[in-house]
Amino acid sequence: MTSFQRKTGLGRGLSALLDDTETAHAPKKSATPPATAPEARPESSIGSIAIADIETNPYQPRTEFDQVSLHELSESIRVQGLIQPITVRRMDTGKYQLISGERRFRAAKLAGLDDIPAYVRSANDQQMLEMALIENIQRENLNAIEVALSFQRMMEECNLKQEQLGERVGKNRTTITNYLRLLKLPPEIQVSIRDQKISMGHARALINVDDVEKQLFIHQEIIDKGLSVRRVEEMARSIHALQLKPKATKQPAGTSFEYQKLQKDLASKFATKVKLKVGQNGKGAIEIPFVSNDDLSRILELLDW
């Protein structure tokens, strides 16, 4: 049996969880080890396991796999075999449960393999969750929302603080906080982040806009007009500057519920605080403030000026 040397690129968190000291000082195994039942397999061993005996990991954070990439990997496995083993844990039923490597596992099934090389670990449910999340965060290209959800699950289900989470995944607290804040955005914006219609930079700028309607308006502008991250940051700063101005203590005369709603809708459209003044005779004015020439140009563009 060919020995497999563990790679060092998995990150300190995963290595610590696996606690897998390789057999550098262990006695050599015989070239042909005696056949043993699954229950008797030693910890941290490697062997060939029937794919039919492996269950997928219920803690897997990745919900989508690129089908083109999956089929390409499947073809590679069909021709050259699976080079990097998956990692499983032994179950009381004699079956195995996937800890990491679901993409490889799926591709191997597509390639028609009956058996797959696997590391066998022993892990409780919390360790299973941590290992699956860390392995995916560090080794897969999760989208930003999947990463944020993974961080949230680790904190909630493993009772971790941000500092502890950062140590496990090798990221500083600011990075952790920025990802978690994405989950406070409206669902429509989260979907756009997930589908990579807007970038992490766009999302971070939108977080600084307190008003949900303004967030949604700017979000739609990003989609429709391809606004740059810098432009969105400028819009967010403009809105923030207007919010810092003292609020009028007196309601304009004749402002009914319908006028209030109209004023709110206009503010959402122009992403700035709009004043609608209406007199008792029905006459009035609309004021659209701006904070810079660029901001004025943006408003005029919305007015098709």
UniProtKB/TrEMBL annotation:
BP terms from Gene Ontology: chromosome segregation; positive regulation of sporulation resulting in formation of a cellular spore
Family matches, as SMART domains: ParB
Single Gene Ontology MF annotation: DNA binding
ParB-like N-terminal domain mapped to chain residues: 47-137
Entry keywords, A to Z: Chromosome partition, DNA-binding
GO cellular component: chromosome
Pfam families the UniProt entry points to: HTH_ParB, ParB_C, ParB_N
Chain segments carrying region Disordered: 1-44
Residue ranges, compositional bias (Low complexity): 29-39
Coiled coil spans: none
Assigned protein family: Belongs to the ParB family.
Protein name according to UniProt: Chromosome partitioning protein ParB
